[in-house]
Amino acid sequence: MADYLFDRGVGRALFPDGVRIVKTRGRIRQVWLGDEILCSIRASDGFIVLNRKGAEFVHAALKPTRLRVVVSDDAAPFVARGKTVFAKHVVGADPEIRPAEEVLVVDSRDRLLASGKALLAGEEMIAFKIGKAVVVRRGFGGE
What we know:
This protein is of the alpha+beta class. It has 5 helices and 10 strands.
């Protein structure tokens, strides 16, 4: 499923040897590595929702620009604290991003700021100057 959602080969990076799977009622709900949760599996559709460590693994496994939304340096601190990404702050995006896809939000130097759900296609994120582009699930810099 990870290869399908993110890209070929990401499954190996996201689920290394030693992961622990948590099931409820026979369905996979979470995947852990040691004492850190990598991801959750959304019950409604089986899609993968990344936590911080999982997002870091996916970020490292994907070539730059793939599934990335690049935000302006002005917006980066807010996004890292978990705030929504608005289209006017998007300076770059993978043109293959589709709405409802899990994406990585990065700054201009490809530092991982957050992960979230795309509301617009990649090309629309760049073209639009109003509205929400990504609903951030988890910001990775606001601790």
